[in-house]
Amino acid sequence: MAHDCLFCRIAHREVPATIVAENERCLAFRDIDPRAPVHVLVIPKDHVESLDTARAQDAELLGALQLLAAEVARSEGVARSGYRTVVNTNADAGQSVPHVHVHLLGGRPLAWPPG
């Protein structure tokens, strides 16, 4: 755990969050500034700073994030209509918390291209 990392602190229940799903390796909680009717963040419980710093041994964990995002999309009722998963990497892409995370967005039509 990175002691100064907000998402590590959420994963360790030191900071409150509205948790919607969890498994052994990942945690999903509602974004505090939602950009869609369904906006959930899926994080690994272990600290990985970004996709840019992820290593080969993190591959299974990164896949687990996407699988939990799909599970949450089904439980939130947006899987059938459609949803988007986004991983922002570093500042220019909008990563504001240095802990890799997947944004799950759904519940309305999403424009393309994003950004």
Q: Could you please describe the fold and organization of this structure?
A:
The structure is a single chain. With 115 residues, this protein is of the alpha+beta class. The protein has helices at residues 6-11, 59-75, and strands at 19-22, 26-30, 38-44, 83-86, 102-106.
Highlighted features:
115 residues; alpha+beta; five-stranded antiparallel sheet; globular
Shape: globular
Q: Helix amount, in percent?
A: 10-25%
Number of strands: 5
First and last CA, distance:
31 Å
User: How much of the residues is beta strand, in percent?
Assistant: 15-25%
Strand and helix map with partners:
Layout: H1 6-11, E1 19-22, E2 26-30, E3 38-44, H2 59-75, E4 83-86, E5 102-106
Antiparallel strand pairs: 1-2, 2-3, 3-5, 4-5
Give a short synopsis of this structure:
The chain is an alpha+beta fold and 115 residues long. It contains 2 helices and 5 strands, in the order H-E-E-E-H-E-E. It has a 5-stranded antiparallel sheet, covered by helices on one side.
